[in-house]
Amino acid sequence: MSNDDNNGSRDRRRSDGEDDAEDASPDREERTMPEGSQDGEEPDGNEQTDDDDPWRSPGSTIEETLAGNGESPGETFDEDIDEQPAGGDEQLSDTHGENEEPTIDDLGSDVEIDAEIEDDPDPEDLLGGLKIDSTEEINIPERLVDQVIGQEHARDVIIKAAKQRRHVMMIGAPGTGKSMLAKAMSELLPKEELQDVLVYHNPDDGNKPKVRTVPAGKGEQIVQAHKEEARKRNQMRSFLMWIIIIVVLGYALIIAGQILLGILAAGIIYIAFKYASRGSDAMVPNLLVNNADTKTAPFRDATGAHAGALLGDVRHDPFQSGGMETPSHDRVEAGAIHKANKGVLFVDEINTLDIRSQQHLMTAIQEGEFGITGQSERSSGAMVQTEPVPTDFIMIAAGNLDAMENMHPALRNRIKGYGYEVYMEETIEDTPEMRRKYARFVAQEITKDGRLPEFTDDAIREIILESKRRAGRKNHLSLHFRTLGGLVRVAGDIARGEDAEMTTRQHVLAAKDRSRSIEQQLADDYIERRKDYEIQVAEGYVVGRVNGLAVMGEDSGIMLPVMAEVAPSQGPGDVIATGQLKEMAQESVSNVSAIIKKFSDVNISEKDIHIQFIQAGQQGVDGDSASITVAAAVISALEEVGVDQSLAMTGSLSVRGDVLPVGGVTHKIEAAAKSGCDRVIIPESNKQDVMIEDEYEEMIEIIPVSHISEVLDVALEGEPEKDSLVDRLKNITGSALNEGASVAGPSSPSPQ
């Protein structure tokens, strides 16, 4: 299948989707015209009176030129611009019915997939009962808000905010749909309210240009009319100038006989006329904001914008005197807050804006208008200050959780007081409906790219399975669509490189290896280098050495050997760990010390416990997910009992010996398998979170545990010593083992 065929099929799918959407919404024909537009009249926002005529700028004579044939100044001009096509109520209603666009009131209904769906889908069916052969059979909704998947709460807030013109702050991880929702809001806002902004020369004070607003599309007409009038005036001046020069030269040459005096006089006349013509050029307004060709409400992304790009600026003029200067109103530049008027201003990573810009942003939100001045104190534009320019925008601020720390408190308070705060979910419950929506997500990514082959049903299943793996939470799907979209594109590129008609499951599997993150590549290289230098031990028994597991980044794991040694202390006992891991090691030892004090005859307060995370540094180790690893290593060193080196483990630990859930178990298990381990211990509560790849299932045995005694029973060497130690531990902890499941069950995973 060629790329043209793919694009053609996608266009057909969109057409079918439009027909279905029209059939599903019978109320779309019963639209009401905007208020004030009945009986063929233009809405009030487009009406214009002589008293508020934007053409009547100070010093302008354009009305006299346009008022020929005895008409009053401004009449012909207003009629030319404000005149609308005739046709009465009937023509208006017909046009409105044919080109009807959905309004905000139409939103909220789910877009159905045009494919057969099983009534009672099998829970194991990754397509959620969707009967398709490829993504070619899936319809894509036209409206961006209908393409949003998973973020139902945020979607509802965006719709409400668009109706009521409220500000929104969205906080969440990257790639969860914040910018997509912001763009969707701009499609929901009415276009009829858009305005053009003009800046005029102020004859009273050149450093305070005047500002006028007109309905969208009329700004270009006004500027063109002013330019035409200025051109005609210049032509008249030029014609008059050359007549005078010819007369002067003729008089000097023929009558007076003073040719040099005539040439000098002609030069003076030429310079005088050119200098005088600059005044007419200054009367042409500067079209600051032009919405003539805007089809939807403006959407401006001001992420990382400097002060001039965000708030507007006035260009520096190197020629500030001598008749060579540029009029101040021609040097004014609009900022994102002005271009977003009647639309949406989106600022991601809001905390990266400097405090001064955040303060000015607060003023623009509060007042609905903001004057433009030069942002550099060394620029001549710093002396220019325009009249207030409209900034009636809806602001959508976004960022990660740390964005709130460096955000100006007053700005956040203003957004919260005039709008909503939304937390973007990172996972969503795995249901048949959501699986069907994920299939639509794959189709949306193919349509957005425009160059990818269609995906087969097995390829879609593999994408959904990868979403389950990346969620890291049982019965949930990941909402990190940006990274999943990257996987879709890489798989499509592989299929296209092979000239395949369809993207298959094998292409997706190849893409998963080819699209590994930097952390995954580093982790794999890290494991290989350790094998070369025999740093990792995957066989035999060693006292005080345990193979722990950790994660790097979000989607990769590494095996982390931990070694412990107990020695007499010359003073109070202490926990001695390498580098910046001391705090975590102390926490792990503190958790297990209560148990050790009960079952062991050794007084650990008189011992120094040395703990080493071999070649770990700080990267990849965080939280207390290595608690059972440290505890097992310390107990092994105290009792001098060897630990099985073909075993790896991860889990948090309570002071009563309960093994608590942790995050990233899937990636940790895969890291253990890559490192050559035969078995791995994980918390019982994480058992349903395991979603390892098929290639690792036969390589490693997974052992869920709920108490430290179970960990020692599996990991320690020697039947007499081990049995005695485990029995003592069980007897001392008593009911802790029986209550372990209930304690660990509702707990949330600790950091990796």
UniProtKB/TrEMBL annotation:
Transmembrane segments: 240-273
Protein location: Cell membrane
This protein's record includes keyword Transmembrane helix: yes
Biological process (GO), any one: protein catabolic process
Domain Lon proteolytic: 540-718
Annotated function: ATP-dependent serine protease that mediates the selective degradation of mutant and abnormal proteins as well as certain short-lived regulatory proteins. Degrades polypeptides processively.
Acidic residues: compositionally biased ranges: 38-53, 100-109
Subunit structure: Homohexamer. Organized in a ring with a central cavity.
Region: Disordered, residue numbers: 1-109
Regions of compositional bias (Basic and acidic residues) in chain numbering: 7-16
Source organism of this protein record: Halalkaliarchaeum desulfuricum
Molecular functions per Gene Ontology: ATP binding; ATP-dependent peptidase activity; serine-type endopeptidase activity
Gene: lonB
Protein name per its UniProtKB record: Archaeal Lon protease
Top-level taxonomic group: Archaea
Catalytic residue positions: S625, K668
